[in-house]
Design a protein that fits this description.
Elements: E1 10-16, E2 25-32, H1 34-37, H2 41-51, E3 55-62, H3 68-72, H4 75-84, E4 88-91, H5 97-100, H6 102-119, E5 123-127, E6 142-143, E7 146-147, H7 148-151, H8 155-173, E8 176-178, H9 180-190, H10 206-221, H11 236-249
Length: 254
Amino acid sequence: MKKLIGVLMMLVVYTTTVIGQTNETINILFLGNSYTYYNGVPSIVSDMGLQKGKKIVVTQITRGGSLLDTYANTDFILETINKYKFNYVVLQEQSTSPLFAAEEKTYPAIRKLDKEIRKNGGQTVLYMTWAREYADSIGTKMLPGKFYYDVFDSFDTAQDSLAASYNKIGKEINAKVAPAGLAWKAFHKMHPDVSLWRSDHSHPLEIGSVIAAYSIYKTIFNEPVSGIKSPLPISKEYEKDIVEITDKLVPCNK
């Protein structure tokens, strides 16, 4: 069992409060990597809660390129889950592992973390990420022995495979899946000329992180996101489309 993660990870705590809020404090832990910390997805979610009058404390433990397998076998992570009794823990896996190492790495790690989360009264939320931007094979898209799009013939194909992987383990452990990747797919179809990825064809621009945050917020709180404004600067048209996509992909359960 690892006592410390070899490279320093980011641990940040955000608290949002508003006059007239309910007394209940909602504690959320995000475990992930750069797909979580780029553009501050946890802080976007906490700001959305602020707009709805919620008191949210968001804790973020992230390190670039980290796998959930590393977190599941690190004492500090397990001790944090046991000590702070989070209401929700959002798990975000490394971007290619659910496609190429699901059975060997991703699923065992999620099962182990979910067991600890439930033992402490929390709920697991799986943060479904997005596929790489479709482009000619380039170095940044390299997998062991081949390029990313030597395996998949399109972004849609890759995204559907990612969704299937997350939904499979979500169904097994009876956990909510925040379909951020499918929201990316829907937005990309509506606005094919709007870039969601940075120049590395992987990490999100601000609008991509906003799409993800809306999906995560609605998955956790089971309430419409209409009326919630993006904390990051995006056009009113895009914000409206993201809200509509989110409400369609993540129906409220009665």
